[in-house]
Design the sequence.
């Protein structure tokens, strides 16, 4: 049996067109994009063309696109860069279930730089953070609100439009949104979002490649000091070839979004129907969650289930890969009252099939019968 990959919210396979373009570039372009001789200027120009194309796709200005090593760096730069660039407002608002790159940035600001952070928790089974809930937390000294569009553990989709509309009424209050699990999956609009981040490798692009959208009115303190790169906000020699192919990566993801959406709805519905056959299984993902991610609870511990599935050539996860080697409780699941010791995360992509789901269902039945 071939290996079945059901961990697509962790990372995705590389799109063949992206891979081909990257290989073609590697064969020819190796110079520093900031060099002033002809070959360096050619690479710089290609990178800037990519920046302009990304800006066009996102409907922002070209100088608002900052290339990063991925969403983790983009989140850190957005949150810490904004907060450390000022000294007046010391109150921040985020959610208990942000990605670790955002959550730990807030923790660091709280523990080492004197900021006070309010961590919002879901109030109902939807798992969403509501505008009313957020409104109650906003204070006169609140500087930043950071709420992710789609949760990477359980698939909660927050109403970002509603949150944006609220924040507009508070002058000087900034809004950051982690779009990593949203890009290419659900529609999004960057109007009235001050800072937004995403990674290429979640949409069939290269690892080590990402974007921070920083609107012109937002000031950031650089976290990586260096030279002129990225308008002086992110120093270091540009990862130019990754930055160049990111435009194609994003374009392909957005072009294929409708087709992807329809197939994932079909695949997700099929999985939910078939998983009902397995005794002792509970679906943790709430109604209205993202369609390509289904978190389930099994009678066995996550460790036993993951190892048993791995022996059957099925790859799933029990938590975000960023915390997979840490023996820590899952913030997202705990906030929803879910037993994280028995939860596994199954996430699909357009490469997956109903036949693979059938094999998964048969396998999980056998495993539960053997070990329960």
Sequence:
């Amino acid at each position: 049996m071939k290996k079945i990959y059901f961990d697509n919210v962790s990372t995705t396979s590389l799109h063949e067109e992206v891979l081909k373009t990257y290989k073609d570039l590697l064969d020819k372009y190796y110079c520093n994009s900031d060099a002033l001789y002809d070959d360096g200027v050619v690479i710089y120009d290609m990178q800037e063309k990519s920046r302009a194309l990304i800006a066009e796709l996102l409907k922002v200005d070209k100088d608002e696109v900052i290339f990063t090593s991925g969403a983790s760096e983009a989140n850190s730069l957005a949150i810490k860069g904004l907060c450390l660039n000022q000294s007046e407002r010391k109150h921040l608002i985020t959610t208990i279930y942000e990605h670790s790159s955002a959550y730990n940035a807030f923790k660091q600001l709280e523990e080492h730089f004197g900021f006070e952070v309010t961590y919002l928790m879901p109030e109902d089974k939807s798992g969403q953070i509501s505008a009313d809930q957020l409104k109650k937390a906003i204070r006169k000294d609140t500087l930043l609100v950071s709420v992710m569009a789609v949760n990477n553990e359980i698939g909660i989709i927050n109403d970002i439009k509603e949150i944006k509309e609220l924040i507009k009424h508070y002058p000087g209050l900034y809004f950051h949104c982690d779009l990593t699990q949203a890009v290419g999956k659900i529609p999004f609009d960057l109007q009235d979002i001050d800072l937004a981040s995403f990674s290429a490798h979640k949409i069939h692009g290269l690892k080590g490649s990402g974007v921070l959208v920083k609107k012109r009115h937002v000031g950031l303190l650089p976290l990586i000091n260096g030279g002129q790169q990225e308008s002086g906000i992110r120093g270091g020699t540009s990862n130019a070839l990754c930055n160049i192919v990111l435009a194609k990566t994003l374009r392909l993801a957005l072009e294929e979004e409708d087709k992807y959406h329809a197939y994932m709805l079909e695949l997700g519905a099929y999985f939910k129907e078939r998983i009902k056959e397995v005794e002792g299984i509970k679906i943790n993902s709430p109604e209205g969650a993202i369609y390509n991610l289904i978190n389930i609870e099994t009678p066995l511990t996550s460790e036993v289930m993951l190892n048993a599935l791995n022996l059957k050539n099925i790859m799933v996860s029990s938590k975000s890969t960023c915390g997979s080697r840490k023996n820590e409780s899952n913030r997202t699941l705990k906030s929803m009252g879910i037993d994280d010791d028995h939860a596994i995360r199954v996430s699909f992509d357009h490469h997956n099939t109903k036949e693979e789901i059938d094999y998964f269902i048969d396998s999980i039945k056998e495993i539960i019968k053997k070990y329960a």
